[in-house]
Structure formats: structure tokens, C-alpha cells
Amino acid sequence: MSDALPIAGGSDVRRYLRGLFGRHPRAIGIALALHVLAAAAGLAAPRLLGQLVEAVHDGTSVDHVDRVALALAGFLVVQTVLTRYARYRSQVFGEQILAELREDFVDNTLNLPIGTVENAGSGDLLTRTSRDVEQLGWSVRWAIPEWLIAVITAVMTLIGAVLVGWWVLLPCLLGVPPLVIALRWYLARAKDGYLWEGETYSTINASLTETVEGARTVEALGLQQARIDRVDDDITESYRAERYTLSLRTIFFPTVETAYLIPTVATLLLGGWLYLRGDASLGEVTAATLYVQALIDPVDRMISILDELQVGGASLARLLGVAQVPEDRVATGRQPVDEKIDAADVRFSYVEGRDVLHGVDLSVGIGERIAMVGPSGAGKSTLGRLLAGIHPPRTGSVTVGDVGLTELPLSELRGHVALVTQEHHVFVGTIRDNLALAVDEAATDARLLEALDSVDAGDWVRALPQGLLTKVGSGGLELSPAQAQQLALARLVLADPHTLVLDEATSLIDPRAARHLERSLAAVLEGRTVIAIAHRLFSAHDADRVAVVEDGRITEFGSHHELVAADGSYADLWKSWNS
Amino acid sequence: MRKLPLDHPGQADARTPWRFLRWTILGQWRTIAVAMLFGVIWMCSSAMVPAIIGKAIDTGVTGRDSGELWKWAGILSAVAVVQSASGIMRHRYAVTNWLTAAYRVVQLVARQATHLGGTLSKRVGTGEVVAIGTNDLSHIGNAMDVLARAMGALVSFVVVAVILLQTSTTLGLVVLLGVPFLLLLLGPLLSPLQRRNLEQREMMGHLANIATDIVSGLRVLRGIGGERVFHDRYSAESQKVRTAGVRVARLQSILDALQVFLPGVFVVVVVWLGARFAVQGRITAGELVAFYGYAAFLVLPLRTATEAANLWIRAFVSARRIVRVLALEPEIDDTGTLTAGPPENSELVDRASGVRVRPGTTTALVSDPPTDSAAVVDRLGRFADGEVTWGGVPLDTVPRAETRRRILVSDTGAILFSGRLGDQLLTPPDRPGHVEDALHAAAAGDVLDSLPDRLDAIVAEKGRSFSGGQRQRLILARALAIDPEVLLLVEPTSAVDAHTEARIAERLTSLRAGRTTVVTTSSPLMLARADQVVFLEDGVVAAVGTHHELLDSCPAYRAVVTREEADETAVAR
Q1: Do B496 and A535 touch (CB under 8 A)?
Q2: Which of A533, B148, B212, B298 sits at 20 to 30 Å (Cα–Cα) from A67?
Q3: Per the CB < 8 Å rule, is B215 touching A109?
Q4: Taking CB atoms and an 8 Å cutoff, what residues of chain A touch B246?
């Protein structure tokens, strides 16, 4: 049932980036200009030192030395100040871009089609929310600026060197082929290698987490040695990955370093030869050698950040992918004529060719209560989702007042049918926040408390020192499962749909609390059409009609007493329960 | 390279964090020493490059001797090759050191977790132990990794200082005193920067929590509305993070600029003094170039030293956490004086509650609240100490391993582990076919049918890919497959539907026929199948009998297992 979310393609990522940068031409321009100027100021030192060496060789005064040293100091101050503002501007810009990126992502997440949300499970989305946002943050805050600075510094240093003499280009070009070959070889392998490596650490982590969180189970089942072996096996795999990436670096690093060496030695030799021929001065040779040496550091940084950028790009692609989930419903604008829910010849499959519902017909009267019972895996929950308009049926129809549920815009659908599952998430925030999301923020306290009262939760909420403003969710007051469920029910009262689909809403709560909750629930159900997927037979007994779902079909349908009298599978179950 | 992981991580010295770090170093001192050696060669050959370029300029260029030029160019190449070779060797050994230490931490913690068993979660937050696996292992690894570079930095710093001292005491002193002084200058800026960084990181953590909260509750949001509210809340927090980031940038950019400025000052001073010496003829033009090179080079040891200090502070904090976990001892001691337990089919008696478990039968425990019966199971299974006798002998005199082998507890905290499903379903060696029976009894056949690879299917972490009901049935099947002499089950069917529960109740009792089984439950479907039902009030036995006997004779029992309103049904019958 778990469909992976899409990942954006290269061209989509590029288009998004162009749009993003296009919105801030001024900020980019200023940051880049400052970086270029700072790098230019940094180029003075080798040039001045070259002149100094020549002056010393030709004989000069201490005064001249002092003046050159002063000039060096002057350029240093200029470079420092420019660096300060260049860095500041680019970091501020980075924070802005990052904020836009993550806000866009959350916006897209909040607009995900409801069927996708129900299907995909939260695992993939959670990874994108946490790891990819963090990875991208690292890239934008650190990798991209460092890389840009390295590129600018390298280009400016090269310009500085060429200004000394065009001949410096020759030795530099000699270093390019080995560098490019090594880089292409490395980058083709590095990303996968590091991803593999990262995965092995996630596996180690997962095994360790399981061992720690399941320590009691480990003890009960005597799994000590099995867990130890498991962790050791994970480490063995991690070590294999580590050795692989290490072997990549063992080839790549020395090759690159050799590539750096070639220009330095060649500059020295070529410069020396030119000096002997009288075509270059001593100062020029010195400055050229120092420039070429100064080139190594930015080029090295430029190269070593490239694989970081690859990983950041992959994260961006995953974040943008969330926006590419196609909408699963098109509003037709038709209006329901009444509140009656009908399903006719409904077939549905999660995986093509494997129907889980085989032609279900169900007509629900307004205000009627229907309980669905049946063994797990029979298709009860799937049918419930279709009746709540989460998925469109493959064939057949599910309608409210003769309009297909998936023809209604989501905001309108919510007013007709709501699905209540056993997942009762408590949002971080106040109790008020948790309730108001079903209506609007301006809802009066009285209205919220009224909703809480109707589900029997008014008393404990009022008893809290801060009442509705009590912080709940992780880090706040911890609510019992029953209380959390009451909040969820109060939300329903506020959203006020005429039909409710309840999926195992009380199964995970201890029986006493469940009985108490049923009373809360009874208040919510009052005056609504209810389709309940029942684990416990209490609810089936109270229902107007009971549908027994087996193997994707409704095999028995009628009132409790009719079904007991009919002596089918429901009757058997009821007897064993009440014998 | 070393064979990793180590077959046995050894017995860590967990008395103090420092002792733990020392123990870690001593355990791999050979590879650390080799890494340091390569680190020294690597850094020193880097330090020699400026001198060689200086020589080449002096003898080759200004000396107008192309032979000398070639010679020094050759030496430069040779040194560069040594540098690159020792560099990669240092890296390889440093990675080995990182891995050895990090893997060892994981091995130690995993072994300690299995040693502590049920005690672990009572003594320390599991999150804290898990954090060792996510963060602390790399901090310990980094501390080992950096040793080689730190040693190289130290030695090369001394070498350069000596060379400069030989040329001029002033220059040498500038280097020897100037470099540490520069380090100190950066100090006052670092702590406010770290504070702002921490502030921003906390806000980022908060922001990530909001995002996680949105994703976890997305079903609710999409089902009932509230997207706008959450979007606005996220945006507001996101903008706070951005503002905090700008505050960081203000200081960070100053630090970045200072990292240009301070070494730059150093270069200017060295070049200025060097040039004055050169004018006076005390040093040559080439040596002046070399001085410039030294000054630029010294930035590297300077950075390494700061880095090493930071890494070791973090490693210390991590070691503290590791030591805390490693020092724990299981609370169920294993001082059993007997060599073996009582004979098979001995009676288990819990004195505190008065529960007697008749051997070879299925006993159901019912209590209000259900936690009372779970506590009885904890004592009977010796996950908590209590006055329990087994065949007349106190349970705590039986060796723990013997108790675990013969009495199996499967409670609501039991988890499925990730990996191949079949590997979790362990059977007694002589009954390999028992897995099928166990799966059938737990009504888990349909779970298996939904998996294309059946028993070869890979279970996700903690069985997340299964629904609550599926997970519960697989956990039950796992306990049944082991077929222990005494099986204690806590609420084994709380998450399954009535149809399935009815099947399990029937099959479970027939599979366990003749074996001792205790089930805590309040479901009539399960209770009707038990040989005897024990009803607890306030944690002590209030009534014993069959389900039907108790329904008739004990109103309190009836109130717990059926709904009060069920009276009308009784009348209707």
C-alpha cells in the first residue's frame, strides 16, 4: 500500500533554482561583487613580495622595505573588511533562500492529495522533512558559499598570475588533464559510495535502537547473542562501505595532489628558463610561483566540496518531488441533492490487478448507523476509506446526494463525511490550537468548551490550571490515549459533518476507557449517519444494521437480531462472545 | 588495515570519561602510533616546500644555474610525492582509528543493552542510549582520528620554529609566541558565536519538530482542516530561525574575516622583518620567499590545534554519556544458588497476590485495572523481584538463564525486530514444523499471505510495516513457536478484531494443551476458553473458577468483562 513519493528530475530542480535566484538579483549581485573584490585584494601579497624579492636582489633601502610592508598591511585590512561584508551578505542571503525552500516544502506537504497521505505512510515524508531539510541547510549555509568563494578565489588568483605574465597559463594547463580525469572518475562513484556508507550507519543505528528499545524482549526471548551478532554484522557491512570509499580516496587524493604539483614545478622551471633568457624578471618568477601555489588551496576546496553539492542536490530533488504528486480529484462543481451515501458495484485495488473489493453495494439511510464487522484483511478499512471519499473507486460509484465524493473539493467534502481512525495525533500547541484547526482560529472559547462537554471532556480540560491554553503534544502535558481520542472527537463535533466513518476508533484503549469513550462518542454520533468499522461486538449490537465483510464482499447485511436469527458467521461470533 | 569489527570489544574501563578515552587509545595504540608517524612526515614535508622553493630561486634563478634549478625542481617533486604518499597513508590509518573506536563504542553499547535487558529502560532513557549510536560514536571516532594530525601539527610547528630561530632569534620568537597568541585572540569571539549558534540550532530543532508534527498529523489536517493555521505557524518559526541565522552571520562573518586577518598580520610581520634582514644581507632573496611560505604554512598547524581541542571537548562529553550507560548493572541479580530449576510441571505461586498457576493448564488473569495482572506476570516471569515460588523453591534461587529458558513472558512492550521474518520465529530444534502451527494458532496466516515472500519477507524496523493487529499476532506466533514450558501472555489480543480473537482463543488453547499458559485479558472470547479464570481485586485474588462460574457468582467480575448494559442481553436470552 505504500507508494513512494516522487523525486524531482534534474530539469525541474534547475528550473526551480533559476526561479529562486531570479527573485533576488540584487542580493546575489552584491554578495558576488564583494567576494570578487575581497579575492582581488588578497592577490596583492604575492605581487608585492615578488617586487620585494627583486628589490632586495637589486639592492634597496630599509625605507622601501617598510613602505612595501605597509602596503601589504593596507591590502590586508581592505581584504579583511571586504571579506567580512561578503561573508555576511552571502550568509544572510543563504538564510533567506533556505527559509523560502523549507516553507515551500511545507506548503507542498500541506497540499498533498489526501489519498497520497493515507497511502504513502509517513516514513518517506518524515525522512524528507528531517534529513533532507537538514542536509539542504548544511549545503546552503556551508557548502555552496564555500564552493563559490573557492571558485571566485581560484579565478581571481589565476587572473593575478596571468597579469604577471601570460606564460603562467602553460604550467597551469598542464595540471588540468589529470585533475579532470581524476575528478570525473571520482564523482561518478563518490555519491553512491557515500550514500551506501550513510545507509550502513542508519542500519547500525536502527539495530542498536531496536536492541535498546527492545532490551526487555531480548532478555525474555534469550536473543542476546542474536542481537550482538546482528550489530556486528551491520558493522561488517559498514566497514565494507567504508573500505570502498576509502579506496576511492586512496586513488583520488594522491592523483589530485600530483596534479597540483605539476603546475608549481613547471612554473618554477619555465620561469627560471625565461629569467635566464632575460624574458622575465626575478620578481615576476617569484610572484608567478607564489600565485600558482596559492591556487592549490581554493582548487582543492572547490573539488572536495563537489560531492557535498551532489548530496545537497539530491536532497533538493526529494524536497521538490513532493510538489509533483498529481491531484487525485477534480471538483466538478456539482452539488449534492441530499445527505444520502450510496455505494454501487464498488471495486478497488491498491495494486493493479489485485482487487481488494469485489463489487460492493451499500445504501446508507440518512441518520442510520451501520456497523461493519469481519476478519482483518477482509477489506473493511478499504471500504471505509472509499465511503469517506479518500480514494475514488476503480469501478462503480460512491456518492453523496448523487454526486461522487471525489467530485467535491476537499474543503466541501469535509463538511459531508469525515474519517475517524485510531490514530489520534495530538499536535504540539495548546488544546485550543488542537481544536480550532477544525473551525477557525477565531472560534470562541464557549464554542470549543461546548464541543468538549459534548464528548465528556469539558471537566478535565476546565480542571487544568490553564484550561484551553494548556500546552499539549510532545514537550507539553502528556494526554492519555483516551483524552487524545476525546480531543479528536471534539474536533469532529466542531467540523460537523453529517456522516462519519469510524475505523476501529476505540480498539487500542483499555476496555474501561473504551466504554467511557463510547458514551462520548454516542454524543458525537447523535443525529449523524454513522458507518463504524467495529472490532468489538458492543458497537455492532447497537447498530441499526450490521454488514459482515468477508473477502472483499458484504456477505451478511441486516439488523443484529436478523443476523443472529439467520445463524450465519455473525451469529456464531455473537454466541461465542455471549455464551 | 585491521579486521573490523573486533571479535570482542573487550572490557571497557568505565570508571570515568577520561579513563574510558585512555582505554580506547590504549586498545588501538599501534595504529594510532603509525598514523602519528605518517602525520609527522606529511606535515613536515609540507613545511619544507617553502624552503625548497627558496633554494630554487636562490641557487637556480638568481644564481643563473639551470642545473641547480632542475635539481631543486626534482627535490620539490620528490618531497611532494613523499607528502602525498604519507598524506594518504595518514588518512588511511586515521580512518582505521576512527572506525575502530566508533565500532567499538557500538559493540560495547549493544552488548551492554543485552546484558541489562529489562533493566535498561528503567534506569536510563532509551533516547539517551540511542543517541550514543547516532552522535557519540562519531565524536569518539573524531577524537582518535585527529590525534595523527595534531601530532603532525605539533612537530612541524616546532621544526619551522627551530629553522626560523637559527636564522634569527626575533623571527623565531615571533613564530613561537605569535602563533599561540593568535589562537588566544580568537577565543573571546568564539563563546558568543557558539552561544548564537546554539540558539539557532535549538530553534532549528524546534522548527524540525513542527514539521515532524505536521507530517505525523497530516491525516488529521487533511481530513478535518487546519492547513492554513499550520502553514502560518511554520512560516513564523521559519522566519525566527532566519533571524537567528542573521545574528549568527554577524559574528560568524567577523570570525571568518579574522581568520584572514590574523594569519595575514603574521605574514606581513614575518615578511617585513625578513625583508629588513635581506636588505642587511643577513638572508638571501630565496630565504625571504621561504619565510613567506613558512608564515603561510603555519596557519595549518594553528587550525589543526583549535580543531583538535574542540573535538576532544566533544569526545569528553560523549565519553561521559557512554560511561554512564556502561556502568549500569541489571537489577534482577543472578545469584541463584541452585544449579537447576524444579522438575517440569511444577506449580508457580505468587505470594503477594495469591495467584497459583496450575501446571499443564491455561489460566486467565482478570483484574481492574489490567495493570495489576501485568504486575503478577512480571513477578512470575522474574522481570520484577517478588515472593514467588516454583515447585516450592524460591524463584530467585533458580539461575536467571534457567528461568528465561523455561518461563517465557510476552507482554505488550514486546517488539518485532527488523530482518527476515522467518528468523524471528524460532522453534525448538527438534520441531522445525512448529512455526506453521504457531502462525495458525495466532491467526497470522493472512499476514503471511499478504507478504509475497512469506517467511522470507523483510520486516521493517520494529515491525512498522505491519498494522497494530498484524504485529500483535506475529508477536504471539513468535512466543508460541518457542513452545516454552510456561508461557505468560499479557493482553495478547487487545488489537485484533472479534472474529480473529475468537479464532485465536480456540486455537491457542488447543495448541497449548498440556502446557502451562497464563493469559491476562478481559475479553469474554478468551476467558471462555481458559481452564480456570483468576479474578483479582486490588491486586489480590478475589475469585477463582471458570468464566461461566464467575459470570454467575461474581458481579464485580461480570462488570469488568461484560458491559454493564449487557444485562438486557442476558434478560433477552
Answers
A1: yes
A2: B298
A3: yes
A4: 91-92, 95
Question: Are residues B226 and B162 located together in one domain of the fold?
Answer: no
In this structure, are B558 and B525 located in the same domain? Answer: yes
Tell me the residue range of the domain where B244 lies: 169-282
Q: What digits encode the pLDDT tens for the residues B407-462?
A: 899 887 788 888 888 888 877 777 777 888 888 888 888 788 777 778 888 777 77
**pTM (predicted TM-score):** 0.79
> How confident is the model over A380-404, as a mean pLDDT?
86
pLDDT per position as a tens digit, B36-60: 999 999 999 988 888 888 888 888 8
Query: What is the value of ipTM here, to two decimals?
Result: 0.85
Same domain, B178 and B246: yes
Q: With contacts defined as CB-CB under 8 Å, which chain A residues touch B383?
A: 216, 219-220
Q: Using the CB atoms, write b or e for A155-167: b if 16+ within 10 Å.
A: ebbbebbeebbeb
> How does pLDDT run across A87-101, given as a tens digit for each residue?
999 999 989 988 998
CB contact under 8 A, B413 and A69: no
Q: Is residue A303 part of a domain?
A: no
Search chain B and give the residue with CA nearest A380: B497
Beta carbons within 8 Å of B425's beta carbon, 6+ residues apart: B435, B438, B439, B455, B477, B478, B481
**Cβ of residue A224 closer than 8 Å to a chain B Cβ:** yes
Do A384 and A466 form a contact (C-beta atoms < 8 A)? no
Give yes or no: residues B214 and B152 share one domain.
no
pLDDT confidence bin for B566, thresholds 50/70/90: very low
- For residues B399-428, b (16+ Cβ closer than 10 Å) or e, as one string? bbeebbebbbbbbebbbbbbbebeebbbbe
Residue in chain B lying closest to A214 (CA): B415
Please give the tally of structural domains in chain B: 3
Q: Does residue A171 share a domain with residue A39?
A: no
> For position B23, what pLDDT does the model report?
94
* % of chain B surpassing 90 pLDDT: 18
CA distance B317 to chain A (A): 20
Is B96 found in the same domain as B206?
A: no
Asked if residue B502 and residue B422 are part of one domain, the reply reads: yes
In a domain, B340, yes or no: no
- Nearest chain A alpha carbon to B563: A515
- Of all residues in chain A, the one with the smallest CA distance to B420 is A230
Q: Which of residues 419-458 of A touch B (CB under 8 A)?
A: 419, 421-423, 425, 427-429, 433, 436-439, 441
Q: Hey, is the C-beta of A71 within 8 angstroms of any chain B C-beta?
A: no
Q: CA separation (Å) from B285 to A270, A285, B51, B139, B161? A: 19, 12, 12, 46, 20
Residue B335 lies in a domain: no
Q: Do A253 and B91 touch (CB under 8 A)?
A: yes
Cβ proximity of B69 and B61 under 8 Å: yes
Note whether A265 and A384 are same-domain residues: no
Dump pLDDT digits (tens) for B110-143.
999 998 888 887 777 777 787 787 778 888 999 9
Rounded-to-integer distance, Cα A360 and Cα A386, Å? 11
Pick the residue from chain B with its C-alpha nearest to A110: B227
Q: Contact, B438 vs B424, CB < 8 A? A: no
Separation between Cα atoms, residue B219 and residue A115, nearest integer Å:
10
**Chain B contact for A69, CB < 8 A?**
yes
Q: Do A376 and B467 touch (CB under 8 A)?
A: yes
Across the interface, do A208 and B528 touch by the CB < 8 Å criterion? Answer: no
Residues on chain A touching B326 (C-beta within 8 angstroms): none
Q: What is the pLDDT of residues A522-532, one digit of tens each?
A: 777 778 888 88
Q: CA separation (Å) from B40 to B35, B83, B89, B97, B153?
A: 9, 10, 11, 16, 7
> At B571, is the pLDDT very low, low, confident or very high (cuts 50, 70, 90)?
very low
Domain of A214? 166-279
Residue B200 belongs to a domain? yes
pLDDT digits (tens, 9 = 90+) for A480-522: 777 888 888 888 888 888 888 887 654 545 555 666 666 777 7
